[in-house]
Amino acid sequence: MTPDTHVDAETALDHAGPGHKDDLRLWLRLLSCARLIEAEIRRRLRVRFDTTLPRFDFLAQLERAPDGLTPGDISRRMMVTGGNVTGLAARLEEEGLIERRAVREDRRAVTLRLTPAGRREFARQSAAHEEWVAELLGGLSATDRAALLRLLDRTRRGVRAAISEGGA
Amino acid sequence: MTPDTHVDAETALDHAGPGHKDDLRLWLRLLSCARLIEAEIRRRLRVRFDTTLPRFDFLAQLERAPDGLTPGDISRRMMVTGGNVTGLAARLEEEGLIERRAVREDRRAVTLRLTPAGRREFARQSAAHEEWVAELLGGLSATDRAALLRLLDRTRRGVRAAISEGGA
DNA sequence: CCGAAATCCTTTAGGCTTCAAGGATCATGG
DNA sequence: CCATGATCCTTGAAGCCTAAAGGATTTCGG
């Protein structure tokens, strides 16, 4: 409100160097880019397969694990909470796409695996999904793609480092 | 099912060039990168301010519009549905961070604006948010930042073009 | 052996998000 | 004027997601 406050806010940013504002721009652009693609993929999954991205990701995890996974495994791989997995699994089982099986060695646990119908359905969805992504990213040159891949890898590593430092 | 079908599926991918799989990798990396940052920011907003990203974004929109915005405006700017805005606005109003005001010229509409408390609260959150982003992205060199910004811009334009073509 | 702690999964409450439907108001063409 | 259609916002149903608490089982130290 007062002039002093106003100046302080600005100088605080200036002292922190030019990176502050640039980083915000970079993050907002990264976010909008990811959201744009994600929203389109969600839309197409809904329109063409009457499903959702979490369901698709769930089936993708099981597809890669022929022997099945426990809810805990899926929770860790999808980076979501256990309660979330319980709900998704209930609906997918209800639709006959996955099945539950008791684990002999541990009566607390259960393994989830694709049913034949689930495997078939995921194959259809997966092929379309791959085409969509190629279509959406098709505008980039091979050079740009490679550069972007490398930069994103560096970004991710940097972010992970920052999180584990700060989180310690 | 039949051998022919199987071959067709594979050749279809091959004909599309090596970009298919690469694009998928690129998309997954972009997504994991964005989600990593977003999850950390959501976590900090919750822990330190007991709030959420949608609420923060909502206040940010109002902060930039001193004269207030209608739910429709916010819906468009945040790229979410109107019903979503209704619910967020109800909770933010309940907490005294925003206020509703009738519009004289149009009795269907209403303008939402920050209360003084809302403006104060957002200032706190916004400053912290900016620091967090700088901290998380701080590992990147100036060169990488600039390159990434440019590549993401190209990506976004390409995706938008692909969507508007396909969506026509 | 046995009790405490850890692990596994589920449940519950609450917030976020969408789609679809509905009520109120405005604008327009007849 | 007024009926029709458009626009604005809200509501309702359903799915996604989290944090926190709870029940069942396993593990492990004593």
From TrEMBL, chains A, B:
GO terms for molecular function: DNA binding; DNA-binding transcription factor activity. Coiled coil: none annotated. SMART domains: HTH_MARR. InterPro entries: HTH_MarR-typ (IPR000835), MarR/SlyA-like (IPR039422), Tscrpt_reg_MarR-type_CS (IPR023187), WH-like_DNA-bd_sf (IPR036388), WH_DNA-bd_sf (IPR036390). Gene3D superfamilies: Winged helix-like DNA-binding domain superfamily/Winged helix DNA-binding domain. Residues 23-157 form the HTH marR-type domain. Keywords: DNA-binding, Transcription, Transcription regulation. GO terms for biological process: response to stress. This is MarR family transcriptional regulator. It comes from Muricoccus nepalensis.
